[in-house]
Design a protein that fits this description.
about 475 residues; mainly alpha; Serine Threonine Protein Phosphatase 5, Tetratricopeptide repeat; DNA Cyclobutane Dipyrimidine Photolyase, subunit A, domain 3; 5 strands
Amino acid sequence: MTSPVLFLFREDLRLKDNPALRAAIETAQPIMCLFVLDEETEGAWSAGGARKWWLHHSLKSLMADIEEVGASLTLKRGKAEDVVPKIVQEIGAKQVFWTRRYGPSQIEADKTLKEILKSRDIEVKSFNGRLLFEPWQFTTKTGGYYKVFTPFWKNLKANGDIRAAVAGIRKINGLPKESQHSVASLALEELDLRPSNPDWSKGFDPEWSPGEAGAKDRLKRFLDEAAEAYKDDRNRPDKPGTSGLSPHLHHGEISPIQIWHAVKERVAANEIPDDQADVFLSEIAWREFSYVLLYNKPDMIDEEINPKFKAFPWADMRSAKPDLTAWQKGQTGYPIVDAGMRQLWQTGWMHNRVRMIVGSFLVKHLLIDWRYGMEWFWDTLLDADIASNTASWQWIAGCGADAAPYFRIFNPMTQGEKFDPNGDYVRNYVTELANLPTKYLHTPWEAPKDVLKAGGVKLGVTYPNPIVDHKTARLRALDAYQETK
């Protein structure tokens, strides 16, 4: 007699290079594929609004992929520790497989679920399908975890034996129909993942193709068109110089293993210069580093890694709320900042260089606690990732591991002039400034009245005046920093 196997999809929504799914198939037992929307366990760190949109379309794609190989995906909502054991009992499964997760609440939830299942003599097997290496694999010479990225990256390159990608799935032996029908699946629409009243996601569709096929196409396009100049163009938001893979990577539609080997193959074929590839792969390694930090310091999602910043005099939000709202809406009066925040709202994504600019503006020009920025990104980014989002916000705020020093304050005018020299990025998102000459595009308040009039700009009416003076804000930030010493 055969005992069915339950495979639990989470942040690994793909059939290729999925070690846990491959291991389940190798049992040669019938498999039930399950996805549980467990928002209660995740709590404040369950998927934000933008990521729910992506999840809807990613699940739709995965369901079609699974049907193509002979099985189906069952959808449920609720606490996994309640849903999974019940289904295991109903189908008579003896084994449960899943891909490991690393967020604090995720680790606790998986530990609880594993204990419940083991108490019922159910075997649980988990696998690494999200990272190049486990967060505990690389240690410093003293046996601790890395708190500085550069030596971590050097160690990974020198000693990291990147495993080969696991073969894709061509056939899943699904449960017999009578067994499958005993566990009714929700319809995808019943998960209620897409926004409505209003539907603010309309700008997402032209930009993105969620799903494993979309991830494959996005990677190929990057390797064909942008990778050979990545080091040079990655800081230019006016150019298609980055991969755009982050939402696919977060949802597990593609693995870092697949990306790594695809890049290395192009280098070996002399299609991508090694130095360009190295810079891109270091970004994959930054994601790994972020998970090392999160695994070893799980309270970093709430507290500064550098304890001296606990005394930092952040702005009182009772008076700073209008500034936060202006930042969120892209109405700060600084064009490169506003362009980034509007790109985020319209497309669910923001160029990495601009993420640093808008982050610096929030925590340094406005003295608003980095946690408010992190929470806004969590809700509006399609690629919102608990490790990368937190580590990056702490980095820009100066309070994280290997952080940019707090006194490094980006000048939004010179950043715009340097990285958007022709103004194409700003014109695309801050359309009310589109007719200004490039000379004044990043500093419209410096434009003569006749130039503003010719460009159809009325400062304070059609486009806001700066909500804070750069020089004044910079000095205020430096004074605040002194209080942490």
